Amino acid sequence: MVIRVAVVGATGRLGSTACDLIERQSDLKLVARLDSRSDLGEMLGADVVLDVTAPGVSATVVDHAVRNGLKVLVGTSGWNEDRLRTLRTLIDAHADAGVVVVPNFSIGSVVATHLSTIAARYFESIEIVETHHAAKVDSPSGTAVRTAELIGHARAELGPVVAPHTDQRARGQQVASVPIHSLRLQGAQARQDVHFGGTGEVLTISHETLSASSYEAGILIGLRAAAEATGLIVGLDALIGLTSGSIDVDDDA
Asked: Which of 68, 123, 236, 248 has the fewest Cβ atoms nearer than 10 Å?
């Protein structure tokens, strides 16, 4: 079976990478490339819609796809727990709907986040520093937000991390009590450092993206999973067997 894919955000960094990758696969066919000037109706010939747009646009793209019976793979930042609960409501209203949300397509990044959830149970002082290229429009990154949320879940029975300085903007934006510091620099690609402080020691779990090729394996895993997906799946970790850190986004959560 050949999976027909429409890429929304095809002219962006990740969109261009995805289009080139899809065209090299025998089981995938690129049927539409949509940019900011495109009519969303152009996606309707696809089996799977890959959304790699912007946080302010992504929800509209996903809503249109789900309402028209298309499976969706979301690679856009900004899908925090609150937005995922709203998405769950939309999916529940449409039989056979399936959406996979992947904050980061890098296998290494997902593994680093998973390791951070393990370490989070042993340290009370935790902060995240994430660095991306100067053109990235959102901060904190979707990867950092998901990492913080998963750390919060891992510490659910232990309580929040030690970060009492909510009135000090230079101390970072707190997500699930974890301060996140965002850097946007020319020459940078993508890097995340999760710092854990303990008595007499500091542990740092780092991941750095050196080229866009690091996303290719995750994009392929996501597209093939999305074609068969039902309901809402969050995170590449859920697709590669690292399920212990998955977020519960049920309406009662």
From this structure: 248
